[in-house]
Amino acid sequence: MPHTSSHYAAEGPRVAVRRFRREDGDEFVRRVRESKDLHAPWLAMPDSEAAYAEYADRLIDNPARAGFLVCEKDSGDIAGFININNIVRGGFQCGALGYGAFAHAAGRGLMREALEAVIGYAFGPLGLHRLEINVQPGNTASIALARGAGFRLEGFSPKMIQVGGEWRDHERWALTTEMRAGG
Question: What is the pLDDT of residues 39-93, one digit of tens each?
């Protein structure tokens, strides 16, 4: 069942993004399980209702995080997620993006559209100045998404983030409001 537009933080032609809700657990967990092969080894996602509840609570109740579900506008189905983590205010005004498509939606351009919507929301209503994406070097789909949205490669950090119990190398990508505006 499609959701009404009043629930959306931002929209594109085919997708809309809205905040995580506790009641999304059943569909989210089902999509995670269906997408296990797509996400391995890049992401470790909550694959039980209890794990989802803990994950969603961290996004819902923490002002340093903004979690968004990517929904297909025609069906309301959850196609993926984009989270802004580690939001720092003051002179920094920055957040770190994490994202993933679900298998049924992968390769259809929905995440590119959703990322554009979230970037607009982050630089608009959220008032951020800079967004960062940390990507494992072999994750070509995620790198292509970052590059396609205008992020620039800023560096490489060995053993930066723990994923699936292992410390993994990451490339650091960034976008600022000035880059987005072309100046």
Answer: 888 888 999 999 999 999 999 989 999 999 999 999 999 999 999 999 999 999 9
Domains along the sequence of the chain with CATH: 5-181 (3.40.630.30)
Residues 6+ apart with CB under 8 A from 127: 93
Three-class SS state of 78: strand
Are 178 and 155 in contact, with CB atoms under 8 Å apart? Answer: no
> Which H or E element spans position 159?
strand 152-163
Q: At what angle do helices 49-60 and 25-34 cross, to 10 degrees?
A: 110
Cβ count near 168 (within 10 Å): 20
Please state the pTM of the whole predicted model. 0.92
Query: Is the Cβ–Cβ distance between 19 and 68 less than 8 Å?
Result: yes
